[in-house]
Amino acid sequence: MSLKFTVGDLTIHRIIEQETTFLPALEMLPGLTPELLAENRAWMQKAGALDDQDVLILCFQSYVVKTPHHTILIDSCIGNDKPRPQRPKWNMKTDDTYARGLAAAGISVGDIDYVMCTHLHVDHVGWNTRLDNGRWVPTFPKARYVFDKTEFDYWTETHAKTPVPAFGDSVLPVVEAKQAEIVRSDYEIGDHTRILPTPGHTPGHAAFTFGRGKDDAVFSGDLMHSPLQTHYPELSVKFDVDQAQAAATRRSFLERYCDTDTLCCTAHFPSPSVGKIRRKGSGFSCEAI
To answer: How many other CB atoms are there within 10 angstroms of residue 200's CB atom?
Structure first.
């Protein structure tokens, strides 16, 4: 299984925290019918995206991108020591899987120049912080953490009404440490890193594109969770804040990168998680490279 990719002048490392069963397909994708699932069961199982009980298998991972100028971590996964009672596999974790993944890629926490979050859901911000003597402190001491302003404002408002644990322990401590950059979609890092607004899953969800002068790689975040959604872009997950907008955004994104050389790096597709978007009937596929 490949954990390292090179494209253009970029080197991309996958840092896997968990690759595991998540939710039944019919529960996670409200628009999915038993008939459509039956039609797609064989290839989904072969792709490692579905188990024999029709439960979706998801990968939870970060990507580290080395450009000629910066080392950038995208989506900081689940994290340790965090109370997540709704998700037993994430709750109060204490394993060293993530640390070992970084070390295997030859990366230390001090090497990261930027942490970029596609959105601020619990499994994309977890390693933003670590527990240090009872306090949450930024895991990456030298990094600037990039949060989309629409996204940050949405969660600030939500958290003010009802506390959102992940926002409280994995986002606000970064702001308090003065390591946050709250940015709009015209924000760029050097001549390699840009923001592509992809709303729907959350109001300020963003994909990130990398490459000098062209998109050599794109990181799609939670624009899609399962390869089934490339074949049927209209299938939104139950966690999408605006399911219709998410579906429209997904189709537009897949059209944008269809039949190009852009490497699409997905957040949750099973390994290898990375591929090129190709047309398939009235939908698309993400063909592993």
So the answer is: 21
CA distance 65 to 111: 11
Contact 267, 119 (CB under 8 A): no
Bridging pattern class, strands 263-266 and 217-221: parallel
With beta carbons less than 8 A apart as the criterion, state whether 206 and 253 touch.
no
222-261 burial, b at 16+ Cβ within 10 Å, e below that, comes to bbbbbbbbbbbbebbbeebebbebbbbbbbebbeebbeee
Tell me which amino acid residue 229 is: Q
Bridge-based pairing state of the strands 114-116 and 274-280: unpaired
d(CA 187, CA 232): 31
State the pTM of this model: 0.97
What is the pLDDT confidence band of residue 289, given thresholds at 50, 70 and 90? confident
Measured CA to CA, the distance from residue 15 to residue 219 in angstroms comes to: 14
Q: What is the pLDDT of residues 93-143, one digit of tens each?
A: 999 999 999 999 999 999 999 999 999 999 999 999 999 999 999 999 999
CA distance 224 to 258: 15
- Spell out the long-range contacts of 88-92 with Cβ–Cβ below 8 A and sequence spacing 24 or more: 89/18, 89/20, 90/122, 90/123, 90/126
In terms of DSSP bridges, do strands 10-24 and 193-197 run parallel, antiparallel, or are they unpaired? unpaired
Task: Strand 144-148: give its sheet, edge to edge.
Answer: 4-7, 10-24, 55-66, 71-74, 114-116, 144-148, 180-183
The strand pair at 188-189 and 180-183 is best described as: unpaired
